[in-house]
Design a protein that fits this description.
Helix content of chain A: 40-55%
Oligomer: homotetramer
Number of strands of chain A: 11
């Protein structure tokens, strides 16, 4: 039984189909998009979609941005049509009027994207288009509705029911491992030996794939199987360390989770991945009793600076912050020891108390708390890389996933914005203006 | 590298998640649907969706129909909300108002279906739900909007970009071949030997699969590789016939195409399949010069009867029709020879001239003409099975797919309803009231 | 990464290599064999071997038998050379003299077979050659040394270390299942439904494959997972029976074991298969406590007849045997009830006491006892098929494989020819001339 | 359908079987070998073989060498038994006497190795045992007969009919590519980027695998697809070079061929690999017109030195040789230009005229000429790596494989030791004592 890539077949069919067209073979994307939208019939539609996808691969980035702006300006929802269709519906409600209203409220762009997705590699073209869009949205705010349309469609197409969970190890294709090295953003993988260590018997790596992008991981997580909850990431990613016996581990540490496709920003994948991996590991290693992340606190020092500017901290904090800006403080043991309690207290305060729109200010905290995790522990000198020192004075935190509490935690967070934190973390919080010792 | 079924993982995670819930483990589908719609957060949502899918498997058909009616009645679009959202948009147009209008115009049911699709086997549950719906829609016309919602969503999820084309042969799993035997509707496969003949070296069989339904063919086509265009189906499906050398074939006859999933009615798959298979066969066997179907004319005799009732035919036609109702006419050679020219003329007329809403009355003609095929030839005694005689007095027709003409044919049909037919078929048409001979 | 069938490559290379040869393309097998033996260098050797293999496929069976006789007569060990090489060795012992002695003692035929095995499909040709040989060895006893050579080589090449164990189920290729139906000899599989029942969740089927014959099962065993040791085979192979829950089974019954390749007769595969399957099932279903066969007693009635002829039984036995020759005795309940104790006693005697060359006379008993099984139970009316009644008056027996006793049982049998039997079987034995009741 | 590693099953069965044995679980290899040889019955035999294989993994290298010496001394052929069996055969020739003679002439060691091969991983243990043996055979010449036995058996088991040809590319498992880097001996692969270049679209890599060693390549060849015959290896393995379009190549250059398993020394694999790859490439790329190696001349400078010592060269050659011993001569363009003709002449002489036992003195020449290649061209500065300069003053040669001439070339070589060389190479040869220019 032979499985054939459908794309190739349809692509080849498409080429043939368009051979006789009067329009020039290589029209501009804008023209092809208009043709694609106006065609009836799937056969020609697919061929046109394929032509458009091919064109989008070959045009310059500037032309692609122009195409995006064209989509924003010329293929937007026509508010007059919406108002008129709504009026029709109001006077004569019924399925057809409703369908008409929906169609104009959605606009031609959504339909165009759906038709592009019928081309071979259509979904890849759309993901890549959105990646470019997100790089230009700041200077072109009129792209926001285009982005919103794409995100809505991609969320449906990257439904977890369509994904496969893949365990990656040292027998995985070299081409895939090479991508892992490129996509890992949290704790860089400097070379193949480092990667090999991360795929050793006491480590696990899982990724999501979509059937229409079989060679592209969407997101992957790296897990360390250890005894007791890990506090420092450097010891986990040390290339030279000896693998432990995974059967003796009682804790799985999710020490890095990386999204691979910028074009899928906002498409929820991470929480499904974490849950699926918890479930897989539980089956494989019944001895595991605890699942936790070892996570950065990317916004801590930025908040510290803002809080000083806002005058809500003490003069001692001012000095503390200055010292942190000077390289080498981490090696000044006396200073570090004296700074530790205040930094831990400030970090606990930052994670638990500081909110924006009633959600925690820290993005990593938002992600894990919304998934139902608990803020478990603050780890002094958890990540002493340059990046770790810059962002959070070297502090890392554990978020713990306890299957029996995930729903309760999630609901408390979703309903009230409650930050579920362990007693030990809560106990670290001090009034901002009070200086202990 | 291990590929794990994602469903299992998420399903197992889901079980754990719901363990602590206060609501009883096995709530009614209506309750679960309400819970699922009101939850925030993907984790619990997936668990609830899974619970609902499980429940839908275990309830009785009557309870399932009741659930469908509940969806129709209680989860419909709220026209008051639509009108009010439209008013908001009219007075203050903007992305958020538009989004709000879209949401209420879509209604809660669409959102519910999308959330069900996040469960393991969610898509299977929805396809099966729609299959049941279609069996009860006639006596429950209020289910029409539910059907419309499901069809819209399934069309997006069964996008050809997500499908795989699989060539099925005698080495395919027995469990799959068993399904083929069950799903083949055009020319029944009585036993394994008959199937084996249809998978011999001078035959081909291709099917579409979706990654979320890996064990279920969606649609399949059976192809005979022959010399010259085939006119009779019985010779193609004769179990005892000797396989020919496929390398000597110049024509591929698509003699049977079967949809397998009733729940996917209206989701366009057949035209993609035909085109993909034409492309595959061209690559495999460059000697093929012609691609054509050998198709039934399911509505011919029904139209003949209606035309007699409408008084647009002759008295001789009346006698002819009566004789066709008597068993055994096919063996009366003299009668058959005398009937042949008139029946061919009437059939040509029926296929080319008879329209409904400016489209051909015959459903198989509509399908192939819309795909860009040409009505090529009328085959007397093409299918002398009981079904063939009942439907079309044994006539079969060839629709020809010529890659270079597909688009032109399709456009003529799509724009003007033009039936592209060969000279020989056109030449058979006679005025309805004129009796030759 | 692409795995290429090596044979194709070498075959194609071979064709090219021989293109320039002066000898005619299609020489007789005898000529090709001589060429093959005399060539130096693997390249040409492989091409010649391939040519010979092709020729053996195309010649008539009579020509093939002639080739076998040629191998027997013209490629035998040359005893004069052996004696002379032995003399050389005696006077000047050393590695080279020994090597020379070995070579002539082995003879040219063995070397020829080894070279044939270098051709694509060489091993298949040799297995098929031996299959033919075994059909003609009775009338051509001079083929015995050829058979002996082939068996020695095939035993090495079908080493268990080279085999793969495959679990066959309803998802296996139809082409493989078709072979199973053809090869099953013990309890015929009449149709696909019967096979499907034998592959249901409470059944298992395992086969051995060799990498050089990937499409050919070598031997397979069918297993029923049941509660308590099964006594009757008809209930196990009943197509209409409902599958039981395999998780509740405590006993695995090996109710049929079939060799598929006649050309591998005498190559030990069955005992490895049984042991491997016991191990697999133990892992899959830890609840299994007992592993036993449900086996025929193929030689029982033949021995009964011989024993009567030899006058070692009673006159009542004479009457009993006569009655067994009349059809329908099985439905005569009174007779059957009266015959049961004596037939069980005779069968127990036959299995435990009757020997040939100090091994049990019954071939199935020899096989399982040599594997370390114990004769566990005699089952009255275990197989009431025509074959079962003909061979053993419907009696079947269980041989039990108890992992902890296999070695002890095997050694007792191997050293002393001891038949290890349960107390209940031993208790059934009566003096041959004594008639109870 | 599930394919189960047979080894695991048999291994697990084996463990169980030996549980009750009186002998200690972990006996010495010598004891286990004696037990294994004396056992009857496959069941216990396999278990013992497995135990022996496990033991051989865990003992020290010294103990393993002691075991090899034990095999040499205590399990050798018993010449008295051979002489006695030969006498029996002389007086009463017959199949049994012959069989008896063969058995004692083969000795117990061969039988032991065959039994070890029935264990899981038995063949791996034997390959590894021979690898160790070959490292110690120089100081222990009594191991020669052990080596000879192993080579004979391994040659049968690594029959090309049992191997699979695998094309390795950048999608191959990282663990396999890592092995390639380790095993490549001719032109070292310094890092992953270098390897990636060697697997680019204009390169090919093929390896042989054996089913019982699925994770171990046996031998692999690296091929460059180029225009015109390549003369310099550095340009082929240059990491930074741009891949060419393989469809435009007319020549395949086999620039490196590496045996991976030292324990398989003397088992013919390379010639099969070259032929299989020629055949595969011909099918994939019909535009290829020429197949050639780019090969080292490892013995050239060593012979030059010996020839000087033997006084058969000129005083000028003496100076030339001295200069070649001084680093940096390659950058002295004037010297290099003046040395080129004489070095080419000497190299051509060395390859064509210098023999040992009527075969070329150069091992690489022996290999390719015996395979049927022709010595095609001498390439000045073909390999200017340190190794290339040391061995052959930087000279590389092309051996050409022309399918139509392979057999003729091979036979000329095999029968007469003839070195088939191109006119250009032959034209370079000069009398040794004549100095041109």
């Amino acid at each position: 039984m032979r499985v054939i890539s459908l794309w190739t077949s349809i692509a080849d069919a498409g080429r043939e189909l368009l051979r006789g067209r009067s329009s020039p073979r290589r029209a501009r994307p804008e023209t092809l998009a208009a043709d694609l939208l106006s065609t009836r019939g799937d056969a020609v539609g697919t061929a046109l979609a394929r032509e458009l996808v091919e064109q989008l691969k070959s045009v310059t980035p500037e032309e692609k941005v122009a195409f995006l702006l064209h989509l924003a300006n010329e293929m937007a929802v026509d508010s007059q049509k919406v108002i008129s269709a709504a009026e029709t519906y109001r006077t004569q409600p019924g399925p057809e009027a409703l369908q008409g209203l929906r169609r104009v409220a959605e606009g031609p762009r959504m339909e165009l994207f759906r038709r592009i997705n019928m081309a071979p590699d259509g979904i890849r073209a759309l993901v890549s288009l959105r990646e470019l869009l997100l790089r230009h949205i700041r200077e072109n705010p009129q792209l926001a509705p285009v982005d919103s349309d794409l995100q809505e469609l991609l969320t449906g197409w990257f439904n977890p029911g369509f994904l496969s969970l893949v365990q990656i190890d040292w027998n995985s294709p070299a081409s895939l491992l090479e991508k892992l090295m490129r996509y890992e953003k949290v704790h860089k993988i400097p070379n193949l030996e480092a990667l090999r260590r991360r795929l050793a018997p006491d480590r696990r790596c899982f990724a999501f794939f979509h059937p229409a992008l079989p060679d592209e991981p969407l997101i992957f997580v790296q897990v360390a199987l250890v005894r007791d909850m890990a506090a420092k990431v450097q010891s986990l990613i040390e290339t030279a360390s000896q693998p432990d016996n995974p059967a003796e581990a009682d804790t799985a540490i999710f020490y890095s989770i990386s999204n691979c496709q910028d074009g899928l920003r906002g498409v929820s994948l991470g929480n499904f991945l974490i849950k699926a991996v918890v479930s897989e590991l539980t089956k494989e290693l019944p001895s595991l009793r605890s699942f936790a992340t070892l996570s950065p606190v990317p916004g801590f020092l930025a908040w510290f600076r803002d809080a000083l500017a806002a005058g809500i901290l003490t003069a001692a904090d001012e000095q503390l912050y200055s010292r942190l800006q000077q390289p080498g403080w981490i090696d000044d043991e006396a200073f570090a020891a004296s700074a530790k309690p205040r930094l831990e207290a400030l970090c606990a305060h930052y994670l638990v108390m500081e909110k924006r729109k009633s959600r925690p200010r820290d993005p990593v905290a938002r992600f894990h708390l919304n998934n139902g995790a608990r803020l478990e522990r603050i780890n002094w000198m958890g990540d002493i890389s340059a990046k770790g020192l810059d962002e959070s004075a070297g502090i890392l935190v554990n978020y713990r996933y306890h299957p029996a509490h995930i729903e309760r935690n999630h609901e408390a967070y979703a309903n009230d914005g409650a930050v579920v934190a362990s007693t030990s973390v809560r106990g670290m919080i001090r009034p901002l203006t009070e200086r202990q010792g």
